[in-house]
Prior knowledge:
Elements: H1 2-30
Amino acid sequence: MCKSFEVLEGYLEKELDVEIKPFIATDYTGV
């Protein structure tokens, strides 16, 4: 259970990193 949660958390972090970084980049260049 705990191990599965850690794997899921790491997966979500990677997904958020992929989605957020391009958004921040376009946000800065858009300004």
